[in-house]
Specification:
With about 290 residues, the protein is α/β, with parallel strands linked by helices. The protein is about 45% helix and about 20% strand.
Length: about 290
């Protein structure tokens, strides 16, 4: 029978990923508990199968070719997705009443405290989180939190909140760059969160909405919002914050509002309810949508 996927041997792909990540056949062999010769044999078999060279062999290591780099990106993404799914399966008990999916940032900043409060009222209902920043990984949960306007016809939603977007930083950062007005913020270092799982407002969007040009200060890019917030707490730069999410950081004084200006969030946070959701899942959804 014809295989449904255009794959080479999984063994060769596992060896290739380890060798590419470590830039060394020897280190890959140590990681996989095989000999360097075995790794080399598997890589050679993969190159023969693909009819191209994947590595440039050097005396002290190996270097990916252009085609090797292309394959490594694809294999790495695939393995990350498989690893994410396995982690979720292992972490999810069979007796869970409700599963809810959210990104790392939303889970940490908003959802986890809400679940703790819910358990005090409904101790018999077990709620399990599926935390993932990979698009689509929370699609089969009973409930899933999304940022944006609901677009899917026939899908049930509850609106959680739609807040304002503010500029945040530490008091030390504000003092160092003398930030009290927007003009100073335009020239200060800014942390940009470029995450593929959200369509969050960028610094360029934020300044444009306030009638200002694009910022000209130093830029620091990350692809995870929690890392962006941590970088701001480490005085790396200013970060945009959704006040409904980052209220605890502000209340604790870990971050402060740098300027008075803010903009309304163009879209809100919504709770999507899967069509298979049980009565307990719907009870939790209604509680989330109405809790203060």
């Amino acid at each position: 029978m014809q295989r449904p996927y255009e794959f080479s041997s999984m063994t060769t792909l596992v060896c290739f990923e380890a060798a590419a990540r470590n830039a060394s056949f020897k280190k890959a062999a140590q990681e996989l508990n095989v000999t360097p010769a075995a790794v080399s044999h598997q890589i050679k078999a993969l190159e023969i199968d693909l009819k191209c060279s994947l590595f440039l062999r050097h005396h002290r290591g190996v270097e990916l070719t252009e085609k090797g780099a292309l394959l490594f990106i694809a294999v790495e993404r695939g393995f990350e997705t498989i690893s994410e799914a396995i982690t979720q399966i292992r972490a999810r008990p069979e007796t869970v009443d409700v599963t809810i999916g959210a990104t790392t940032a939303f889970s940490s900043l908003w959802l986890t405290p809400k679940i703790s409060a819910f358990w005090k009222i409904h101790p018999s209902i077990t709620v399990s989180q599926v935390v993932s920043d990979v698009p689509g990984m929370t699609g089969r949960c009973d409930l899933a939190i999304h940022y944006g306007n609901p677009q899917e016809n026939g899908v049930e939603y509850r609106k959680l909140f739609q807040d304002h977007i503010i500029a945040l930083g530490t008091t030390r950062f504000a003092a160092e760059y003398r930030i009290s007005q927007l003009e100073a913020l335009l020239k200060a270092p800014l942390i940009h969160s470029s995450s593929k799982e959200t369509g969050w407002t960028s610094w360029h969007d934020w300044f444009a909405a306030l009638g200002f040009p694009a910022p000209k200060g130093r830029s620091f890019y990350v692809n995870n919002y929690m890392i962006a917030l941590q970088a701001a707490q480490d005085d790396v730069g200013a970060v945009l914050g959704w006040d409904g999410l980052v209220g605890s950081l502000v209340n604790e004084g870990r971050l402060v509002k740098l300027v008075q200006e803010s903009i309304p969030s163009p879209v809100g946070f919504h709770l999507r309810i899967h069509r298979r959701a049980t009565a307990k899942a719907r009870l939790f959804a209604d509680w989330l949508a109405t809790s203060p």
